[in-house]
Amino acid sequence: MTPITVVEGRRLALSNLEKVLYPATGFTKGEVLHYYATAADVLLPHLRDRPVSFLRYPDGPDGQVFFTKNVPPGTPDWVTTAEVPRSEGPARMVLVQDLPSLMWAANLVAEFHTHQWVAQAPGAADRLVLDLDPGSPATVVECCEVALWLRERLAADGIEAYAKTSGSKGLHLLAAVRGASSDQVSEYAKGLALEAEKAMPRLALHRMTRSLRPGKVFVDWSQNAARKTTATPYTLRARPEPWVSAPVTWAEVEECRSPTQLAFTAPDVAPRLQDHGDLLAPLLDQDRAGTLPRS
């Protein structure tokens, strides 16, 4: 029988807890659920009010991996949902608003991906994101070099940037913004990527063209588009090990000399939270949000 767990008054059937999802480390589904329960206090504020896309990997990263954007069949009626616009017509998506919803979603075994806007104001961006993606043999070390340049460039416009690992090979830069549409933020982010390429032509790249990418860092500005999503802070990733998209300090970025320095797995997160708290908490304070410069 599937065990029933009560979370804040909600009954949840949490299944296959002994199933190994990450064979390289033996990390089980039960440990995945435990991770999300312990990270809930910092993860939930970054999920709240944001429609969630799930990248599901129920049999582990070596099994079938697929995106779920619409409300999955069997979703409990107490899970909050919202209608969101899409080019092909409105759709209904999940909002992970509380611990029971988080544990229900974690039981699906999924990465969490969110938009740069909240459900109450679709297309009105409150975050800017730059996804720094290294082309081999470049690594996160080169991403850090580009990130430091971008931090200073954003600061020149009065916008404070924060960093997190992608949970894979690269680095994400995030900033709180206000008073701009997703289209406006996308255009601004594209301009930053172009400037980075001009300033560091042997290192940074603003185009996705595969033939140009070896040894360079692709500054992906396109995830600011209203339809796009980015891995949510603290989400586990469908990778060989239970890597987490983990916030990092700027000192860690400055001191990065090896890819392993910025590779964090689920067991690493609790000690980091003890040491640093939520390094991305300022993103949640709209009073600290920056305003895009007028073109």
From TrEMBL:
It comes from Streptomyces cinnabarinus. GO terms for molecular function: DNA ligase (ATP) activity. The gene is ligD. The keyword Ligase applies. It is an enzyme of class 6 (ligase). Gene3D superfamilies: DNA primase, PRIM domain. Keywords: Ligase. This is Non-homologous end-joining DNA ligase. It comes from the Bacteria. It holds the Pfam family LigD_Prim-Pol. Its EC number is 6.5.1.1. Residues 28-279 form the DNA ligase D polymerase domain.
